[in-house]
């Protein structure tokens, strides 16, 4: 007979004694269980003891997480969180440097547990650590020169413990003094600093800036762009990532006028730095966090264009009338409107940004500009490519492609390396594309009536070239050379043939007949994916300290198993390691987007469109929710489809529509294949005779 569900069989360790096998009744209070364990080893004062998970985490067992204990778990009897906090609070103040170092190392490990962290913070432990950083650093550094092996990690463990404690969100960032900020900033500003100390210091500065507007101003006074740039020149990708994260945080919180100046200085510094290219073109693969930070920096860089993009030209402004392009006679005009050129630039977007691009092209690529002007002046009027109108519409298109003005997404890693190789990357991007537009215009033999068609082709050429993620602007340009108008026509023809849709009545009837089969196939695929499970991220204020949890459907499709993880898993997570369960029969509804409870909470998440599009919740019992934020759009569609299928509802995601179109098209083509050299009989073939025996049949039941 199997044991009751509330009974868990575990092993419990105690230093210096043999482990005990014990059955824990989950209905009993935890204090009663600890008392029973202590009495087994003749230990008094059971209130001074607690149970921990005996693994690398050493997390304390509490009433909240006790259900995570599973059969076969190994637990450890240890001092209570309060007693441990008191002991470490005293030990880190030891006069012995060896003892202090060991205590700080233990504190850094213990601080990852929120139960311990709460007790240590209640003892004013955060203040003690900040005082140690403010007052003891110089002494440690002097001792470090004498006894480097002993003191090399002293400051590192102090800052690590501080970061871990603050990451729990118990203490407000607004409580820290200017002296503490100056100390942390000084570690970043030093040219030679221990890698671990530098990494923790950068993480602290990033969190300060992101979590407090007041601290932003204080940090901005201590850190300059020039002091951060050298940290990008090394080979440590973690240091580079943290450095770019601090820069991004400073720009996100900066006032608009200061942001413009700071980011321009940053871009110029980076592009003049030979080692910055190593960040983009490093032989080591760029990890997800670095890719995200580069994406954020790319978005912030292009968002500097928004002001000019949304600025209209004053029609009464006489300056434009006097603008003379280099290498051109007075007859060469920026505008299509010769009476009042300013009228062309009243459309927003692209506003004055189009004029900026035109002037940049004419001044920095004078030969190419003159060639375009001369080519068009020698054509018939109807075949002339209008430079002014082309520049305005192209600028608008490029702003749309690069999403100028939109906030960065929490989950996006889509950056383009080529934009980090030039200090005027957008303008250079425009110069390449305006030459492409003129070339495509010639290839299409277009007239003014074909303008929109030409722009559609140019957009397709640009998007296809960007998809290949060129490493430089020159590489982007060469990719465009291979995407001529003729090549685009071939690609379109090929895609059209692959997507050909037959509209005859028999074909439509066949489609209707096949469609339920395909939908059932998609449903089974979704349910199979839910059975494999997915790792979801709990978004925190500091991305590199993210918590993870895993959820998967049982093979019989009756239960959702889920539970927290310490790190992102490699492969599937077994059911028995996920202690929390939710019967599918208890699920009432699936809620998506802004209607989800975790999207209605206060905070930055609800402001982010990308996160809203990835959020969904499962409603069960009476107003109880299991909240999800999918890692990407694909997983969002898989899970919402799968959950709706479990509830007997229609699968309506974009992913389902795409799969239906693809699979239906493939199935139709397979069924309608031409049969060559095969004579189709008028009557169906005869049914063969039954075999003499059925020994070859295998009964799967």
From TrEMBL:
<dbReference type="InterPro" id="IPR016024">
    <property type="entry name" value="ARM-type_fold"/>
</dbReference>
<dbReference type="InterPro" id="IPR024574">
    <property type="entry name" value="ELMO_ARM"/>
</dbReference>
<keyword id="KW-0597">Phosphoprotein</keyword>
<dbReference type="GO" id="GO:0007015">
    <property type="term" value="P:actin filament organization"/>
</dbReference>
<dbReference type="InterPro" id="IPR011989">
    <property type="entry name" value="ARM-like"/>
</dbReference>
<dbReference type="GO" id="GO:0032045">
    <property type="term" value="C:guanyl-nucleotide exchange factor complex"/>
</dbReference>
<dbReference type="GO" id="GO:0006909">
    <property type="term" value="P:phagocytosis"/>
</dbReference>
<keyword id="KW-0963">Cytoplasm</keyword>
<dbReference type="GO" id="GO:0048870">
    <property type="term" value="P:cell motility"/>
</dbReference>
<dbReference type="InterPro" id="IPR011993">
    <property type="entry name" value="PH-like_dom_sf"/>
</dbReference>
<keyword id="KW-0581">Phagocytosis</keyword>
<dbReference type="GO" id="GO:0006915">
    <property type="term" value="P:apoptotic process"/>
</dbReference>
<dbReference type="Pfam" id="PF16457">
    <property type="entry name" value="PH_12"/>
</dbReference>
<keyword id="KW-0729">SH3-binding</keyword>
<dbReference type="GO" id="GO:0005737">
    <property type="term" value="C:cytoplasm"/>
</dbReference>
<dbReference type="InterPro" id="IPR050868">
    <property type="entry name" value="ELMO_domain-containing"/>
</dbReference>
<dbReference type="InterPro" id="IPR006816">
    <property type="entry name" value="ELMO_dom"/>
</dbReference>
<dbReference type="GO" id="GO:0005886">
    <property type="term" value="C:plasma membrane"/>
</dbReference>
<dbReference type="InterPro" id="IPR001849">
    <property type="entry name" value="PH_domain"/>
</dbReference>
<dbReference type="Pfam" id="PF11841">
    <property type="entry name" value="ELMO_ARM"/>
</dbReference>
<keyword id="KW-0472">Membrane</keyword>
<keyword id="KW-0053">Apoptosis</keyword>
<comment type="function">
    <text>Involved in cytoskeletal rearrangements required for phagocytosis of apoptotic cells and cell motility. Acts in association with DOCK1 and CRK. Was initially proposed to be required in complex with DOCK1 to activate Rac Rho small GTPases. May enhance the guanine nucleotide exchange factor (GEF) activity of DOCK1.</text>
</comment>
<dbReference type="Pfam" id="PF04727">
    <property type="entry name" value="ELMO_CED12"/>
</dbReference>
<protein>
    <submittedName>
        <fullName>Engulfment and cell motility 1 (ced-12 homolog, C. elegans)</fullName>
    </submittedName>
</protein>
<dbReference type="GO" id="GO:0017124">
    <property type="term" value="F:SH3 domain binding"/>
</dbReference>
<feature type="domain" description="ELMO">
    <location>
        <begin position="292"/>
        <end position="466"/>
    </location>
</feature>
């Amino acid at each position: 007979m199997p044991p009751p569900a509330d009974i868990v069989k575990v092993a419990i360790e105690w230093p210096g004694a043999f482990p005990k096998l014990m059955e824990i009744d989950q209905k009993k209070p935890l204090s009663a269980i600890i008392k029973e364990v202590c009495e087994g080893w003749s230990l008094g004062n059971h209130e001074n003891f607690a149970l921990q998970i005996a693994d690398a985490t050493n997390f304390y067992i509490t009433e909240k997480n006790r259900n995570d204990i599973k059969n076969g778990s190994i637990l450890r009897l240890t001092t209570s969180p309060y007693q441990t906090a008191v002991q470490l609070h005293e030990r880190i103040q030891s006069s012995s440097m060896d003892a202090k170092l060991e205590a700080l190392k233990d504190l850094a490990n213990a601080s990852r547990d929120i139960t311990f962290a709460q007790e240590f913070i209640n003892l004013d432990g955060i203040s003690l650590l900040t005082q140690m950083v403010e007052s003891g650093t110089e002494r440690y550094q002097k001792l470090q020169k004498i006894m480097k092996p002993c003191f090399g990690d002293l400051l590192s463990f102090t800052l690590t413990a501080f970061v871990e404690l603050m990451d729990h969100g118990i203490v407000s960032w607004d409580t820290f003094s200017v002296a503490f900020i100056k100390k942390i900033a000084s570690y970043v500003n030093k040219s030679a600093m221990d890698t671990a100390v530098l990494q923790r210091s950068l993480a602290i500065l990033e969190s300060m800036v992101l979590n407090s507007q007041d601290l932003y101003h204080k940090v901005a006074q201590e850190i300059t762009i020039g002091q951060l740039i050298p940290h990008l020149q090394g080979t440590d990708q973690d240091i580079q990532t943290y450095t770019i994260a601090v820069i991004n945080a400073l720009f996100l919180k900066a006032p608009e006028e200061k942001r413009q100046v700071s980011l321009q200085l940053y871009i110029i510094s980076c592009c003049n730095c030979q080692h910055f290219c190593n960040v983009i073109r490093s032989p080591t693969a760029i990890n997800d966090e670095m890719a995200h930070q580069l994406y954020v920096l790319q978005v912030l860089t292009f968002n500097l264009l928004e002001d000019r993009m949304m600025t209209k030209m004053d029609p009464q402004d006489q300056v434009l009338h006097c603008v003379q392009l280099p290498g051109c006679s007075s007859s060469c005009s920026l505008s299509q409107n010769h009476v009042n050129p300013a009228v062309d630039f009243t459309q927003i977007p692209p506003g004055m940004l189009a004029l900026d691009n035109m002037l940049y092209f004419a001044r920095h690529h004078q030969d190419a500009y003159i060639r375009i002007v001369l080519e068009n002046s020698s054509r018939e009027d109807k075949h002339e490519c209008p430079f002014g109108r082309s520049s305005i519409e192209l600028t608008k298109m490029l702003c749309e492609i690069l999403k100028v003005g939109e906030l960065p997404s929490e989950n996006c890693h889509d950056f383009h390396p080529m934009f980090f190789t030039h200090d005027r990357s957008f303008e250079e991007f425009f110069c390449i594309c305006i030459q492409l537009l003129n070339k495509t215009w010639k290839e299409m033999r277009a007239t003014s009536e074909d303008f929109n068609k030409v722009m559609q082709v140019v957009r397709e050429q640009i998007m296809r070239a960007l998809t290949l993620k060129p490493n430089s602007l020159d590489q982007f340009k060469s990719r465009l050379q291979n995407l001529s108008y003729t090549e685009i026509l071939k690609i379109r023809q090929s895609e059209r043939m692959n997507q050909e849709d037959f509209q005859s009545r028999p074909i439509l009837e066949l489609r209707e007949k096949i469609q339920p089969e395909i939908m059932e196939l998609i449903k089974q695929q979704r349910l199979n994916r839910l059975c494999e499970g997915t790792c979801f991220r709990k978004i925190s204020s500091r991305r590199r300290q993210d918590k993870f949890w895993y959820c998967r459907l049982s093979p019989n499709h009756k239960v959702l198993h889920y539970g927290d993880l310490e790190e992102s898993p490699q492969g599937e997570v077994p059911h028995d390691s996920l202690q929390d369960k939710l019967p599918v029969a208890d699920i009432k509804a699936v809620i998506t987007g802004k209607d989800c409870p975790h999207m209605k909470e206060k905070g930055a998440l609800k402001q982010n469109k990308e996160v809203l599009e990835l959020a969904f919740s499962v409603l069960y019992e009476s107003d109880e929710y299991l909240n999800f934020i999918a890692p990407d759009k694909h997983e969002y569609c898989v899970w919402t489809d799968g959950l709706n299928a479990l509830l007997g509802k229609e699968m309506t995601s974009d992913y389902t529509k795409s799969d239906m179109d693809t699979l239906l098209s493939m199935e139709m083509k397979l069924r309608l294949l031409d049969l060559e050299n095969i004579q189709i009989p008028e009557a169906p073939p005869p049914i063969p005779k039954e075999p003499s025996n059925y020994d070859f049949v295998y009964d799967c039941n």
